[in-house]
Amino acid sequence: MPENPAPSIEITAFEWVPSFAQGQVRDLRARWACEEFGFPYKVRLISALERPEWYYDDQPWGQVPFLRDGDVDIFESGAILLHLAEKAHALPAPGTQERGRILSWLFAAFNSIEPFLFELAAVSIFSRNEEWAPLRRPSLLEACRLRLQRLETALRDKEWLAGEFSVADIAMATILRSLVKAGGDDDLLKSHPTLSSYLDRATSRPAFARALEAQLAPFAQHDPRQKDPV
Amino acid sequence: MPENPAPSIEITAFEWVPSFAQGQVRDLRARWACEEFGFPYKVRLISALERPEWYYDDQPWGQVPFLRDGDVDIFESGAILLHLAEKAHALPAPGTQERGRILSWLFAAFNSIEPFLFELAAVSIFSRNEEWAPLRRPSLLEACRLRLQRLETALRDKEWLAGEFSVADIAMATILRSLVKAGGDDDLLKSHPTLSSYLDRATSRPAFARALEAQLAPFAQHDPRQKDPV
């Protein structure tokens, strides 16, 4: 057996995205977990601008990440995080409070926090020129504020959401990090210092920095505005 | 040991909700899973109209369901479904494609389908009198249509999302079922016959009927408009 076999894990990511999305694409979560757990991985790059039709067979919505781990195909970053945590034996045993807490916060990130912030990004960025966007924004901001206030109360003086650092923190930190500067929505985070410190703590981890660097690396090379790269 | 010990599982649900929400509240998912797995459960009822302040310690957003299983507390219906499936030994082994498929579809339901339909319910019901709601509706309907089309393509001629019937189907079926008649949004389902049959198949299961009946049972008794129930 070779000492350095080819990685069994392959993450599908975008070869290039516009600048506002750089460092925000969701394959960051899969990369971050691999870095935390010490799993080497290879990357399959696809075009975000022209999603290949065959890719919808792997990922029903044409989004990234998609993870192939040997014979196992997984889509949805939450499922990928759980798979990687199980592979790393980083989850407490089934039926324990410790595991229940991680599962609760993992789903909370994806179902109770991200949808709010995703809609806010739509209003503030993607659809900002639509007639309805500025009309919707005040009540949505208020809903986001209330939700983040509840999250702050739940986090209190805890270092991480569920005991030790876990995949739930990878999910929540990448979601909080998506509060966009362009729409002024990062004020939401500034007005919640507990969440702001939590995010700083998470993104100070060396594994996060490596994951971020790895996501950004191919973008310069595949910039469609740069036909003849230097 | 008694032959019928008190159930270890307690589900927190609402004692009453307005008619449009009756049969739609998310504790249905936890009840349905318990019925499928043959787990007896008791119920703790709280007021939806005046959420008790102490309840936020159990469930950060004040929502239902919250599940207590012996020493284990879990919130978020996705986490509760996973916990119950693990308790029932109804999940394939970690690291298998079969498990990966269930995890992928479970998170897909909560992160890639529900947020679209939840926003649609806001536009069509909860916020329908806001100035922005009718302006937002057409593009949102189009986004929902595209997402459901992709889901239909992924489901194709499969009976269930991930091999055998699983908690991913409990999640997806309850989410599809939330397409509301009041807003005319159930046309979305009618125009996707594959999804419509899938939902019929899921809700024809006896465990679903028992769960639904159990959710509805307390509502008549706690109707706030009926001070002197007959």
UniProtKB/TrEMBL annotation, chains A, B:
Start and end residues of each GST C-terminal domain: 95-230
Residue ranges of domain GST N-terminal in the record: 14-92
SUPFAM superfamilies in the record: GST C-terminal domain-like, Thioredoxin-like
Classification via InterPro entries: Glutathione-S-Trfase_C-like (IPR010987), Glutathione-S-Trfase_C_sf (IPR036282), Glutathione_S-Trfase (IPR040079), Glutathione_S-Trfase_N (IPR004045), GST_C (IPR004046), Thioredoxin-like_sf (IPR036249)
PANTHER family named among the record's database cross-references: GLUTATHIONE S-TRANSFERASE GSTA (PTHR44051:SF8), GLUTATHIONE S-TRANSFERASE-RELATED (PTHR44051)
Name of the molecule in the record: Glutathione S-transferase
Organism in which the protein naturally occurs: Novosphingobium panipatense
